[in-house]
Amino acid sequence: xxxxSGAVLGTAxxxxxxxxxxxxxxxxxxxxxxxxxxxxxxxxxxxxxAPIILLSPRVCGFSRAYATFNxxxxxxRINVDEIAWADLPAHDHAHAAEVPF
Length: 101
Hints:
By secondary structure, the protein is an alpha+beta fold. The protein has a single domain (2-88), classed as Trna Endonuclease, Chain: A, domain 1 (3-Layer(aba) Sandwich). Helix content is 21%, strand content 23%. It contains 3 helices and 4 strands; from the N terminus they run H-E-E-H-E-E-H. The chain has helices at 2-7, 33-43, 72-75, and strands spanning 8-16, 19-26, 52-55, 65-66. It has a 4-stranded mixed β-sheet with strand order 1-2-3-4. A hairpin with a 2-residue loop joins strand 1 and strand 2. The longest helix is centred in the middle third of the chain and has 11 residues, at 33-43. The protein is globular and about 30 Å long.
């Protein structure tokens, strides 16, 4: 998992068209389907509350993206350079099974 965790460059949550999304900035190779599926399984542990879009940084003006749902309308409204990125929240396995009530 070290390879995957090192490929997460930042996370953010945003709302577009009334939909709350989790954005994960990753190395470009993790936006291709096989690697993206591995990355989604990894980040879902910490970002389990929202649909996730994987984005790569711009390289020569081009940024890649991957999600398991249609993201065309969302991508038109996302500027990777204007997002305040944060670190991936740590997943606390000790409290994962606790119910909040």
